[in-house]
Design brief:
The structure holds two protein chains of two kinds. Chain A is built from five helices and no strands. By secondary structure, chain A is an all-alpha fold. Chain A is elongated and about 65 Å long. Classes of the chains: A mainly alpha, B mainly alpha.
Chain lengths: ~180, ~200
């Protein structure tokens, strides 16, 4: 009984957080984080996941149990919330990266932070950011460490990548891999 | 002091009479009084706020508030734990014949831990975003009201917990400004990974 309650709580947080990330993606136009091209559909999916997870957890069995029994202590709740929310984030980033594999393929530079996910999927944004560190340009004297420092400084000062040009981003109609159903 | 304690008990007794009268209200109170519903809703609200903002600057402000809220929540919990070592007040249902929607906790009633953590989170968010904070204050208030309604806490327990929580939120928010640039580095790390 006690173990099943922990698993139930973890599942609730996992599914509800997946829903919340979809709602946040739709709300903030983070297309790289959306499971559907339509913002409305993504928002509805997120809402269904969030409400569904809560409904399942609270309606499936009585949950007002002491932490000496099947319930969870405050610290356990804190820990499992981070575990469930983190797992939900990892799953969302993985699935949406695969789903939006070709999104932002033609873009040379991206803004830092979450803004990059407006134009491309997560793994592409991550590797694009790490590229100067992993593969310094020929003739570039910067070491990998200096490149890392520069990227980090950009992140602290809210600067976008110097090469980032929003005008360069192709329109959805011309975006590679999109519009083919 | 006796007057305050008598008023405390009277408020609990009056509110508790509502249990069993309206089925819909009982079901709603059963949900709201739970250890999970409001805390999870507060946490998800904070998680949603992490993404909120049209520009990196406004998003960064929200993210700092979420960090402050998470830290305040932990410190408020710790403060209540320490105070429980010095004060022990029995729960209302120990002294009065009350209907209940909840199990009977054995720890101290004063100060109320749920009030401390919920108001800590609400306070820290409110200092950055009044609207988002107001929603959390509403949730915190509902949770605390349900706890008094169910005979788990006296109103003064809630008041003390809320003051601890709100005070902790203010201290942590002010403290985070003092320890700059550490919060900026934390957020920069998250931004570097495209997570903030």
């Amino acid at each position: 009984m006690s173990e099943s309650f922990v698993l139930d709580y973890f599942l609730l947080v996992f599914v509800a957080s997946c829903g919340l990330y979809q709602i946040a993606a739709a709300w903030n136009r983070l297309r790289g984080l959306m499971l559907f091209e339509s913002r409305g559909l993504t928002f509805v999916l997120g809402l269904v996941l969030w409400v569904g997870a809560f409904a399942w957890f609270f309606l499936s069995e009585p949950r007002n149990m002491p932490d000496t029994g099947a319930g969870l202590t405050g610290n356990e709740q804190f820990g499992y919330f981070f575990a469930g929310g983190g797992a939900g984030l990892a799953a969302t980033l993985l699935v949406t990266s695969l789903r939006n594999w070709n999104l932002g393929k033609g873009i040379d530079a991206l803004p830092t932070g979450l803004d990059a996910l407006r134009d491309t999927g997560y793994t592409r944004a991550l590797f694009r950011g790490l590229m100067p560190i992993l593969r310094p340009l020929p003739g570039d004297r910067r070491t990998a460490f200096a490149a890392l420092r520069r990227r980090f400084k950009d992140a602290t000062t809210d600067r976008t990548d110097p090469g980032y040009n929003p005008a360069q981003i192709p329109s959805p109609a011309t975006r590679p891999g999109e519009g083919d159903g | 002091m006796d007057t305050v304690l008598a008023a405390d008990a009277m408020i609990v007794a009056v509110l508790n009479q509502g249990i069993g009268r309206w089925t819909v209200l009982d079901h709603a109170a059963y949900l709201v009084v739970s250890d999970y519903f409001i805390p999870l809703t507060i946490c998800f609200w904070m998680l949603g706020l992490w993404f909120r903002g049209d520009s990196p600057v406004s998003r960064g402000r929200h993210q700092r508030a979420v960090l402050a809220a998470a830290i305040s929540l932990g410190f408020a919990n710790l403060a209540v734990l320490i105070l429980n070592g010095f004060f022990f007040r029995e729960r209302p249902f120990v002294h009065m014949e009350l209907a209940s929607l909840f199990y009977e906790p054995t720890d101290s009633s004063f100060p109320a831990n749920p009030a401390a953590v919920a108001f800590a989170a609400a306070g820290a968010i409110w200092l950055a975003n009044r609207r988002a904070g107001a929603v959390l204050f509403l949730l915190a208030g509902l949770w605390c009201l349900a706890r008094v309604y169910s005979g788990l806490f006296y109103p003064t327990d809630i008041l003390a917990g809320a003051l601890i929580g709100a005070g902790m939120a203010w201290l942590v928010t002010a403290g985070m400004r003092r320890i700059e640039p550490v919060p900026t580095w934390v957020l920069a790390g998250a931004r570097f990974l495209h997570l903030a």
